[in-house]
Amino acid sequence: MISLQEEISDIFSVLHDGHIESSERNEDTLSFSVSIMYLTERIEGSNMIHVALFGYRNSEFIAWMKDGNSKTISDYSLTDLDILSGKVEEGRIRADFSNHSSDSEYCGGTLYFECDSYAIEAPEGKSITLHAIKEVAAKYWGDFGKK
């Protein structure tokens, strides 16, 4: 059985290559909407996947600066970042992102955080499980490998 932290980190891994269209932090919740065409086109009526992390706390965003250094940014937004991966590291969830915006001073970053629970929804508030998204992703990558 995998831990809740591992399950939450899997959200970021399964949404690899997804683009965060919007994100919002308020009190102890982080919400974000991910555009990930290769998955959403296989989920009926979906063009975006919405994720909410509840009990979100102890976050730290370490930006990968274009000059090769890193810098902790306290007032960060995940909007316009692309998801690379997730894992559990030293008791916290780690999510890595790339940033292709030429206007930004950083090219990506690592977000460390803790949270208590999560919810995933497709459009119209239709709940979808992480397991279902993993199945869709596995099918996509299986079909992709046959090409």
Q: Please, what is the average pLDDT?
A: 90
How far apart are the termini?
Answer: 34 Å
Tell how many strands the DSSP assignment holds.
10
How would you classify the helix and strand content by structural class?
alpha+beta
Task: State the major sheet.
Answer: 5 strands, antiparallel
Q: Report the total helices.
A: 3
Name the poorly predicted regions.
none
Strand residue percentage = 35-45%
The neighbouring-strand order within the major sheet is 1-2-3-9-10
Overall geometry comes to globular
* H-E string: HEEHEEEEEEEEH
Question: Can you put this structure into words, describing what you see?
Answer:
- It contains three helices and ten strands, in the order αββαββββββββα.
- The N and C termini lie far apart (34 Å).
- A five-stranded antiparallel β-sheet has the order 1-2-3-9-10, with no helix packed on it. A five-stranded antiparallel β-sheet has the order 5-4-8-7-6.
- The model has no long low-confidence stretch (mean pLDDT 90).
